[in-house]
Amino acid sequence: xxxxxxxxxxxxxxxxxxxxxxxxxxxxxxxxxxxxxxxxxxxxxxxxxxxxxxxxxxxxxxxxxxxxxxxxxxxxxxxxxxxxxxxxxxxxxxxxxxxxxxxxxxxxxxxxxxxxxxxxxxxxxxxxxxxxxxxxxxxxxxxxxxxxxxxxxxxxxxxxxxxxxxxxxxxxxxxxxxxxxxxxxxxxxxxxxxxxxxxxxxxxxxxxxxxxxxxxxxxxxxxxxxxxxxxxxxxxxxxxxxxxxxxxxxxxxxxxxxxxxxxxxxxxxxxxxxxxxxxxxxxxxxxxxx
Amino acid sequence: xxxxxxxxxxxxxxxxxxxxxxxxxxxxxxxxxxxxxxxxxxxxxxxxxxxxxxxxxxxxxxxxxxxxxxxxxxxxxxxxxxxxxxxxxxxxxxxxxxxxxxxxxxxxxxxxxxxxxxxxxxxxxxxxxxxxxxxxxxxxxxxxxxxxxxxxxxxxxxxxxxxxxxxxxxxxxxxxxxxxxxxxxxxxxxxxxxxxxxxxxxxxxxxxxxxxxxxxxxxxxxxxxxxxxxxx
Lengths: 290, 232
Fold this sequence. Notes:
The structure holds two protein chains of two kinds. Chain A is mainly alpha-helical. Chain A has eleven helices and two strands, in the order H-H-H-H-E-E-H-H-H-H-H-H-H. In chain A, helix 2 (39-57) runs antiparallel to helix 3 (65-84) and helix 3 (65-84) crosses helix 8. Chain B is an alpha/beta fold. Chain B has helices at 42-50, 72-78, 95-102, 113-119, 136-148, 166-173, 176-180, 193-199, 222-230; strands at 4-13, 16-26, 31-36, 60-62, 65-66, 80-83, 154-158, 185-189, 202-207, 210-215.
């Protein structure tokens, strides 16, 4: 019994990391109706940024967020405004191809700059410290912190979307970008702000990834896959759905790992496949026509 | 100097040309109707003014400044708002949120959510209702109110009677004097010719992308209008 609870608990917490991976992707799909294939590589880029910050400035791994998140925000704004906006149209293919190209470019630049060696960030005792829950159960502080961050980020973004003028403009543009322009909303700027937000979250995800595991230049596509699965399972355009999708993916993987260490990733994919077959719009789809 | 004028305006979509040298003028405070058959270029004319279609620079002037080629948001900031054909409310937003999006540019002026609800009392109890749950007439009222929220000097209305019952159309048109009371200039594209002639100070008839007739409704005969409309 304790083993079962432990498996699910670890899976839920792992889901927090996947939700952080997926939030940026969910935002850019929900608002721009654009699939960013380079999303995973942006996560890895943020991990390297965090690594460089820690190595050169000697900062604490968590304090590195003060550098990484603003830097990723600027990267996101510039990327959307000057690279992606010009190729956005009714045709979904051009941005898909451009972000695919971007993915290859980021991977190779990282390889060129940092070699293929695996890197990692040492965050100190928090990496191994755990909280005893009684019985044989314990959860690590780091996974708890990651999960709490995911909930905080998503709650913050949901508040922004539902309560602020900026959020209203995001939703209006997502509904009908032509009419949004007739209301005076400059969609090029708005899209760039959305991507800046997406990349800010990606920055947080990249730091946690770097603390949690070692990483290399070519790891982006597999992070993209997890993020993508979390978004699809949760339903496109719903951020709480993305969290639920991340959790479902995390729990499935955790169960698989428990059954056999080689099965974890596979069971995650199988859960994704099952959702895709039975409920292709995702569990909490909010966007219409998606 | 006229309030809004177009000079030899040419516009279209890709290889398709919809307007051929339109000369069109509106004075401040006027209500001008544009009538014409389907495909005559009425909507394209409105879209050219509002920036959804980008005609060559210099062909449209608003309050003395060239606006042709400006983006739609820049046109709104200059004081021109459009009620798009088919209402096109934001479906995931409530009535109030739809109106507030209209105020995005924060142009100063008299229009507020409460004032729009005064203009269309039918909307008052639906303030927090999702826009998709409104009747067609109520949606049209929100669409007009949403455009007014930018406090425009010029309001463009594209087919506001389309698909609505006559009694609903009547109640919407009854709001127009209240909109004009502040000096707001109105250009109406309307397929309901009787309605257009009743409300407008002047009328333009388009036919195949050209102005086929213009004048004051009282000075035009039924035969002239029929000929200009159908080209017979």
